[in-house]
Every structure is written in structure tokens, then in C-alpha cells.
Amino acid sequence: MNILTSKVEASRANEVDATNIQFGKSYSDHMLVADYIDGVWQTPQIIPYGNISISPATTFIHYGQSIFEGVKAYKNIHGEVAIFRPKDNNKRFNISAERLAMPHVPEEIFVGGMKELVALDSDWVPNQDGCSLYIRPFMFAIDEFIGVKPAEKFRFMIITSPAGQYYNKPTKIYVQDKYVRAFPGGIGFTKAAGNYAACMLPMLEVKALGYDQNLWTDGIEHKYIHEIGTMNVFFVLGDKVVTPDLSGGTILAGVTRDSVIKLLKEKGITVEERPITIDEIREYYYKGELKEAFGTGTAAVIAPIAELYYDGQTLELPPVDEWQISNWVAKHIADIRYGKVEDTHHWMMKVK
Ligand code: COI
């Protein structure tokens, strides 16, 4: 695919403090931009990272036709840079796009453009354990029109940012039983910007109480567990791993979630994808059988949960260093990403 590239005169890569990489604080030298006009994707461009100029009447600002993805590139122990499962994020992006009446972004732009961008900015991919280059593809409606109708013009962009750990200690989670993130027939399964907007006030409220995030429950009974604000959720109940199933259309089909399920099953561990109620989690807790709880996501990777607050009760998990299952899967997925074990699933796509 033809990509027009204009490079920066001098890289800023050496300005990043490799000993203190904070999520979302610095952005690499270049970004990718491609516009969809008159039903056709225009030639993508890789240009120096910087501000963009748009009309105040641009549709997405008013009506929120805007979606995104999260992907990561790693520098392995051989010094090679590879992106984790970018085609799967492209598929999920297009599922979000369909629901928001936006065009599909073809693989040659989403994955091909991403590979070129990451190859060009490969000096920005950290090589310390636990670090990566976070890749943020996103698309928004750019019609200059404030009437309410699906837009006709769209902009797809990719920016990248060096990332360390998203959570630097086990998280404290508030089981949300007042606000609602998603309901059947809605957009809960998409990475629409609006899903995150709706979570900001509840997030502020639980942060003020000392919690890191909400665990969302269903919108009808507040009984079935959905997902955490930044990640999917898993519980180890006895010797089984359980995670909410995707059938209701209210939960994001996480790529990390899918990878964890595959790796655990291959290891011979029982994984159940099914509806789970908060009462079931509580029953296992009081039987002493709630062994581990963790979130999975691109940014968060595998994030242990220290405690869950629900309806006046705090469920405290055992110390994380005693956990067998999530510590194993966290190490194994890291070993695949850093090239320490064979990538039998062909999840790593090398950029050069
Ligand atoms: C990700 O894990 O990539 C996400 O999109 C979650 C969050 C940073 C918004």
C-alpha cells in the first residue's frame, strides 16, 4: 500500500525517561492519518505528531461518532519489534465501526499503516520488562454539519505512546449497582468514546471513596457482572476460572481476554465463559474459595484485584504472590511478547 511519509527533522525519542514511563504522557515522533471521503479511503499519510485543526461544527464533537482501539508493540530479547495480534484489533474496530454507522478500515490501512508507523518510530519501543509501545488507532466523523445524521466523512488516525504498567499495585474495585454502563441492544460491546464518557462520573465517585475502578453490573437487576472500566474480569473460584460470556452484547471482546482463555485452556485449566452473579462471587468468598480475581486488557495487561466492595461488604483477596493461575498466565503471555518462549499462536507480528 502506498503511504505518503514525511519525517520529523529530529527525533524526540531520547527525551523519554526510560526509568519512569507513565501511561499516556508522551507521544512518539509520527502519527498516521487517513480520511474517508465520498466512500473512498484516501492515501494514508505518516506525518510528524502534532495538533490537528478542525471546524467547531465537526460532527463527532457534537454527536460522538468516535471509536478507538488499544494495541501494543513489544521489543523482544532479540531486539526485534513486534505488534501483538493487530489483526484481531482491526476486526473488533470494524465491529465497533458498523454499530456506529462508520466505514470499515481495511487491513492494509489499519495493520499495514500501523506496521509502517511502528517501524519508523521503533526507537520509541521500550525494551524494559513490562514496558511496550501503546498504539492507539481511532476514527471520528468529520462532516462539518450540526444537523443530526450519520456522517459521510471520517478520519482514521494512529498515535503511539511508550507505556509501563497501567496499575502499579493490585486494584481496589467497587461493584457498581447504581449507574449502568451497558444494556442489551446498546453499544457496550464497542470501543465507542461515549461508553467511556458515561463512566467518568461514576469513576470520580468511586475514586473519592478510595477505589480504582468500577466493576459494572447489568442494567436491569445489577446482579450479573459485566466488566471493569478499563478491562475484562476473571475470577478463580475453587480450581475453575470464570469470566462473563459475550453473548449479551454488553461486554467488550478483549483480545487479552481471548489470549488468556486460550492459554489457560491449553494448560489444562477449566475456563467457563458464562453469566456470573455478584452473589455467586460472594458465596465463593465466604466459602474461602474465591482464590484470585484479575482484570485483563491491552493497557492493563493482567491486573490483580486486591479487594472488591459490594453493598457494604469488602471481599479481600488472598496475597497476590500466593496466586497460581494468574501469575502463571501473566508470565506466559509476557514471555511470548518478549520472545522468551515460542509464539505457537503466531500472535506477534514483526514490523520489519
Ligand atoms: C486498552 O486497554 O487499550 C483500553 O482501551 C482501556 C483504556 C486505556 C481506555
Which second-level CATH architecture of the largest domain applies? Alpha-Beta Barrel
Structural class: alpha+beta
* CATH homology-level superfamily of the largest domain: D-amino Acid Aminotransferase, subunit A, domain 2
Q: How many domains is the backbone divided into?
A: 2
The average pLDDT is: 97
Secondary-structure element sequence? EEEEHEEEHHEEEHEEEEHEHEEEHE
Portion of residues within helices: 10-25%
From the alpha carbons, calculate the radius of gyration and give it in angstroms: 21 Å
Overview of the structural elements:
The two termini are 15 Å apart. The protein is α+β, with helices and mostly antiparallel strands and 352 residues long. The strands form 2 sheets. Strands 1, 2, 3, 4, 5, 6, 7, 8, 9 and 19 form a 10-stranded mixed sheet that branches. Strands 10, 11, 12, 13, 14, 15, 16, 17 and 18 form a 9-stranded mixed sheet that branches. The chain folds into 2 domains: 4-164, Aminotransferase class 4, branched-chain amino acid transferase, N-terminal domain (D-amino Acid Aminotransferase, Chain A, domain 1), CATH 3.30.470; 171-337, Alpha-Beta Barrel (D-amino Acid Aminotransferase, Chain A, domain 2), CATH 3.20.10.10. It is built from 7 helices and 19 strands. The protein has helices at 59-63, 86-99, 107-120, 193-208, 255-266, 278-286, 325-337; strands at residues 4-5, 30-37, 40-41, 45-48, 66-68, 71-75, 81-84, 132-141, 154-163, 171-175, 213-217, 225-228, 232-237, 240-243, 271-273, 290-297, 301-310, 313-316, 348-350. α5 (255-266) crosses α7 (325-337).
